[in-house]
Amino acid sequence: MMHSHIVGIGGYLPERIMTNHDLEKIVDTSDSWIRERTGISRRHIIGREQATSDMAAAAARQALADAGLTINDIDALIVATTTPDMIFPSTATIVQSKLDGKDFPAWDIQAVCSGFVYGLAHADCMIRAGMFRRVLLIGSEAMSRIVDWTDRTTCVLFGDGAGAVVLEGREQEGGVVGSVLHADGAYRDLLKAEHAHGHASPDSFHREGIDFATDAAGIAAVEMKGNEVFRVAVTKLGEVVNEILQRYELEDKDIDWLIPHQANIRIIQATARKLGMDMQRVAQTVKDHGNTSSASVPLALNELYRSGQLQPGQTILLEAFAGGFAWGANLIKWTKQGFSNGT
Ligand code: UT7
Q1: If DSSP codes are grouped into helix, strand and coil, which group holds residue 32?
Q2: Binding-site residues, ligand 1, Cβ < 6 A
Q3: pLDDT, tens digit, for every residue of 240-262?
């Protein structure tokens, strides 16, 4: 029987950093409010000339180098994104072309911040079914292009970046143990970007001397009822981590690392408490990345991996909660040895 093993990991964060103090200049907020309510201190913002596909390609190059593979060793390419370069073609085909990939299927999936967790479940099922041997899975987001930079309740939360993994089917035990996915469209109005479109060519937006590559304020932007999202997220994430442990007959104490979606440190702490986990065993990047939507879980995984703390034999739990609402979790029995530095 085939098992999906992660054999390469990569990440990319744009050069430009926006701190909470930078945000104080454009909306009525404070560094202390943002840190206390969210745990965020800074976030990366995509360059004016960059697109979601450029960040995705950069993360993919690092993952491929880490795996010791080239793009044409790949059998399928999936990009999870909420901020595609354009409505079509898919960002995945644009990434394929930027990486000089030929002749393998490439497509996007959209489950907002849960995109990577959903994508990992898809890729794992296709590898187990024998359809593909190697899948390149990327989460890439230019959230700064769909936030309303005049709305302090949302613009302080998000950041840009990309994370990627190469999955390979092997008969060896371990790798992805399984996944649990959920959605409930009854909540769809609590978190949405109703009029958003493709974002490869941003309009410019200038404010207080800061030059944003973003859509015009408020027109195609993220709208969120933060309080309600928070409440449901804590409940559903608590339920889904219990469900996945029960399904695969594991207990809280069997989890070595929690790699949660990085939306808010208070949500992350609530899930860790539910699992009785020390925060030392929880990947935490929200402070430096903000919420990078579908890129958040693979970026957190990449940081943990490159810190040298992930060891073969450890069990890791990934989880995410997103607009829709769509949420889910994956369990992985880690098998990869150390990393090689990619491009
Ligand atoms: O990734 C997908 C899932 N997304 C999430 O999981 C996000 C979930 N929601 C959250 O993380 C939190 O609800 C927020 C961080 C968005 C907000 O935190 P909160 O503790 O729920 O604050 P709140 O919305 O209850 O607002 C408290 C106060 C309000 O003022 P009043 O009405 O009490 O006078 C807000 O207007 O804080 C005010 N406020 C701000 N103040 C300074 C809201 N945003 C800001 C801000 N700076 N940026």
Answers
A1: helix
A2: 29, 33-34, 37-38, 113, 152-153, 156, 226-227, 229-230, 233, 263-264, 267, 291, 321-322
A3: 999 999 999 999 999 999 999 99
Q: Which atom of ligand 1 lies at the shortest distance from residue 38's CA?
A: 15
Is-above-0.85 flag for pTM?
yes
What was the pLDDT predicted at 221?
82
**Tokens encoding 218:** 């408020």
- Active-site annotation holds for 261: yes
3-state secondary structure at position 25: coil
Q: Does the domain at residues 1-343 carry the CATH identifier 3.40.47.10?
A: yes
State pLDDT tens for residues 96-110: 999 999 999 999 999
Which helix (H) or strand (E) segment holds residue 61: the answer is: helix 52-67
- Annotated catalytic residue, options 113, 155, 302, 330: 113
pLDDT number for residue 211: 57
The residues near 142 (Cβ < 8 Å, ≥ 6 apart) are 46, 50, 51, 52, 55, 83, 160, 199
